[in-house]
Structures are given as structure tokens and as C-alpha cells.
Write a structure and sequence with these properties.
Layout: E1 4-13, H1 26-34, E2 38-43, E3 46-47, E4 64-65, H2 69-74, E5 80-82, H3 92-105, E6 110-111, E7 113-114, H4 117-121, E8 124-128, E9 131-139, E10 160-161, E11 166-172, H5 174-187, H6 191-198, E12 209-212, E13 215-219, E14 224-229, H7 231-247, E15 250-256, H8 270-282, E16 286-290, E17 298-301, E18 304-307, E19 312-315, H9 325-331, H10 339-346, E20 363-371, E21 374-384, E22 398-399, H11 403-413, E23 421-423, E24 426-429
Parallel strand pairs: 1-2, 1-19, 2-5, 3-4, 5-6, 9-15, 11-13, 15-16, 16-18
Antiparallel strand pairs: 1-20, 7-10, 8-9, 11-14, 12-13, 17-18, 20-21, 21-22, 21-24, 23-24
Helix pairs in contact: 7-8
């Protein structure tokens, strides 16, 4: 197998076309991307001309962009794409299918969504020089209506994304567990569920556990939070990885997951760590995480690379062209409000929301090299999205060589035993050292 180089960027929430020839600072970003054979980015949008109807629930902002913005993203040189994220179904099934059509018309290689669960789950394949690469894309942050459904003998499947469901269990000592029992009794919040158990529609909770309005609690000798990937989804995804290992030289997995178990958003939920490690154990050589719009740590695990989150690559949420009735109704603003005024209201004139958090704008692109299927080096390239710029200009990446970002990321990597060497504005990870 030949030596192969990879680069991955995080979330591309693009809403504006590039100027002719690219924006100021575009060239160095493109040049960095183009130095690599396999070039990945997450498409955090739907791409169509109002061909789907707005869903009742969005991923936060109803995300739709002119399909021609796909050409702008491609101008960086990316050649491998994820489409499974919390915005995949912002415009319902029509938006999913229209986005797929616009990607295929441009011969873009992608995975993560499809006309049914089988199509959404399967890998896509990219032919690099001397190496065939598979990508399986998964999402854990979604409304249940966004899940793709499987075809049966009688009915077609449901368009949507490749899901990773999970459960969260709050383990409590005897004192705190008794508090939950008392609260459930006083509020009768579980009355409907308990009736379903009595008449046989629902299985009773296992001994020593209790639901409180859907949240699950377990009696234990100490207090902690446990999150677990759903085994049915894990089995399906691991099966696709094993199949891809038969058909490709290198298998990549993309996971879009916002979740954290406690109050530190830089620490991925336990189920995401479990998921990523099981993917490597099943044969994946790298797991590319994105979703929380900020950096998370990096782990070198059993010869594989786990990037828990690369942060943002393009973040133009405030210049989206359209928002539906639901957005205005949720904010309590008049239905004839324009998008710019709506964004002013939502961000409290730029004083609230993601844009006010400096860590949201700390981002890197991660490049790595594999020789004969073995990970040999990882390089981290800091980028800035210009958070201090005005709304019409901020949100596009430029190279910075910002060593503060690398030192920040190095601290996030410490729990995984991953050391980052910083040299000339680039972070370097040498696996096994």
C-alpha cells in the first residue's frame, strides 16, 4: 500500500458565495488542503433551492444554502464529505433528497444520508493514488424524525441520516436515589409509563432503576453519569466497517456528536469515546469527530487516530438567507420579520450566542500520514474564522499559525496521553512517542 496523506476539517456551515478568486486568506487554506491526498470536511448544511419544506424541529438554525456554495467548498480541494449531522433534515425528506441530488450532480463523494437506512449507513469509496479509502458517516445529535428508516417487504424506507442512538444513566447513592423516588411519587410524573407497564405495552424498568420523566436513574454506591451507545446501532455500524475493510485499504469513520455528559463541553460524552474506540477495534484507521463547534482532544488508540472534535471550518450562521415560520414563532417576533432583524434579536445584537465564546473560534485542520496502513504522524494547522469581524465578513477560515490554539488543544489532549509538539505554528503528534 502506498503512503497516503489525509486532512480533515470540521463543520462547514456555509451561507455565502465566495468572491471571484476567493476571499482574502483563501489561498493559503486551499494550498494546505491540497497538499494531501484525501481531503475531508463536514457539510453542516442542506443544499437546495427550497425543495424541501421546513421541519418542525431544526438543528438550531434552519440550514439551507444555494447549491452553488458546494462549488465554493470544493474550491478548497476537498474530495470527501460527511452529510450526517443535526441539520441534515432541517428541510424534511425533500431537503435530504435534493441535497443528495446536488452532491451527485457534482460527482462529490459523500456518506451519511440516503433515501433509506441502508443507503445512509453504507460507506462511500474514494480512489486516491495507490489507496482506496472508505468513509462511513454517523450522527448522534438529531431529532428522531431525522433518522433514516429501513425498507420492508411492503414499504419503502424513510430518507434521513445514519443514526447513533445512546442512553444516559444517572447513578446515585442511596440518599439521592431516595430523593428521586420521592419526587416521582409526589409529581406522579411516571403515571402514564407505569400504566403502560401494567397493561403490557411497556417493559418494567430493571431492578434498581427508575425513570423520572424519561431520565433514567440507577441506585449505586456513588454518584456518576454513564452514557452508552445503543447496541443495535453499534452492531450495524461495526458491520459496515468490517465490510468496508474488505473493499478498501483504509476505512474512516465520521461522527457528528455534540454531546457531553457533564458541564464541560470540551469533554466528549462517554458513549462517544466508547463508539470511537469500538470503531477502531472493528477496523477503522481514523475517527473524525465534529459537531460541538469547538475543539476536543485527540487520542491515538490501538494504532488508530481519534479526533474528538475539530471545531469549525466555516461558520456563517447569521447570514443564512431564509428562516421559516417556526423560527419567528419560537422567538415571539412578527412573522414579517426579516432574517437580519431575526438574527439581531436571537443574538441580542451580537452579545449572546456562539459568536460571543472565544473557544468556538479556536479551530484546526488535522493532517496525518499513513504508510502501509500505519499511522506515522499527525499535523495540526490552526485557523481563525475572524470572530471580531462584522457579520457579513466573519466565518471563513484563514491560516494563523496561532500557537495559543495549539497549547489550548494540547491541554485537551492530556487526558488521552497525547503529546503535541509545537513547531513554527504547527502542532505535531508522533504516535507511540
Amino acid at each position: 500500500m502506498a503512503k497516503t496523506t489525509f486532512i480533515a476539517a470540521g463543520d462547514a456551515f456555509i451561507t455565502r458565495r465566495f468572491p471571484e478568486g476567493g476571499y482574502e486568506g483563501f489561498g493559503p487554506v486551499r494550498d494546505c488542503v491540497m497538499q494531501h491526498d484525501v481531503r475531508f470536511v463536514n457539510l453542516e448544511m442542506t443544499f437546495h433551492n427550497q425543495e424541501g419544506v421546513p421541519a418542525a424541529v431544526s438543528g438550531g438554525t434552519w440550514a439551507m444554502a444555494d447549491p452553488r456554495t458546494l462549488d465554493d467548498i470544493r474550491s478548497y480541494g476537498f474530495n470527501l464529505f460527511n452529510t450526517a449531522n443535526n441539520h441534515s433534515c432541517d428541510y424534511s425528506h425533500g431537503g435530504v433528497l435534493a441535497t443528495i441530488r446536488n452532491l451527485r450532480e457534482r460527482d462529490m463523494v459523500f456518506s451519511g444520508t440516503g433515501k433509506d437506512l441502508g443507503e445512509a449507513s453504507k460507506p462511500c469509496y474514494f480512489e486516491a493514488k495507490g489507496t482506496r479509502v472508505a468513509l462511513i458517516s454517523v450522527c448522534s445529535s438529531f431529532d428522531r424524525s431525522a433518522m433514516a428508516g429501513a425498507q420492508t417487504a411492503d414499504l419503502p424506507g424513510r430518507p434521513g441520516l445514519n443514526p447513533l442512538r445512546f442512553s444516559k444513566i444517572f447513578h446515585l447513592d442511596a440518599e439521592h436515589y431516595a430523593m428521586v423516588e420521592e419526587l416521582a411519587k409526589v409529581t406522579q410524573i411516571n403515571a402514564g409509563a407505569e400504566r403502560s407497564v401494567r397493561i403490557g405495552y411497556r417493559n418494567p424498568p430493571r431492578e434498581g432503576t427508575l425513570s423520572l420523566g424519561g431520565a433514567m436513574f440507577a441506585r449505586d454506591d456513588r454518584c456518576f453519569i454513564e452514557s452508552i451507545p445503543e447496541e443495535k446501532d453499534m452492531a450495524r455500524i461495526e458491520g459496515e466497517i468490517r465490510e468496508a475493510c474488505k473493499q478498501a485499504d483504509i476505512v474512516l469513520v465520521s461522527i457528528h456528536g455534540h454531546e457531553n455528559d457533564a458541564d464541560d463541553t470540551t469533554v466528549p460524552a462517554q458513549f462517544l469515546e466508547t463508539f470511537a474506540r469500538r470503531c477502531v477495534d472493528a477496523g477503522a484507521k481514523a475517527v473524525i469527530g465534529h459537531g460541538p463547534h469547538e475543539l476536543r482532544g485527540i487520542e491515538c488508540y490501538h494504532g488508530g487516530l481519534i479526533l474528538y472534535s475539530l471545531g469549525n471550518f466555516i461558520f456563517e450562521t447569521e447570514t443564512v438567507e431564509f428562516q421559516p415560520w417556526d423560527a419567528y414563532a419560537n422567538r415571539g417576533v412578527p412573522l414579517d420579520t426579516k432574517v437580519g432583524a431575526y438574527m439581531d434579536d436571537r443574538s441580542k445584537n451580537g452579545t449572546a450566542g456562539y459568536g460571543t465564546l472565544p473557544e468556538i473560534w479556536f479551530s484546526v485542520m488535522a493532517g496525518w500520514t499513513m504508510e502501509d496502513g500505519e499511522l506515522t504522524e499527525v499535523r495540526l494547522y490552526p485557523i481563525s474564522l475572524g470572530m471580531d469581524k462584522a457579520r457579513p465578513q466573519k466565518g471563513v477560515p484563514v491560516m494563523t499559525g496561532d500557537e495559543e490554539v495549539l497549547r489550548y488543544l494540547a491541554r485537551l489532549c492530556e487526558p488521552y496521553g497525547t503529546a503535541i509538539e509545537i513547531k513554527d505554528g504547527v502542532g505535531i503528534i508522533r504516535p507511540g512517542k
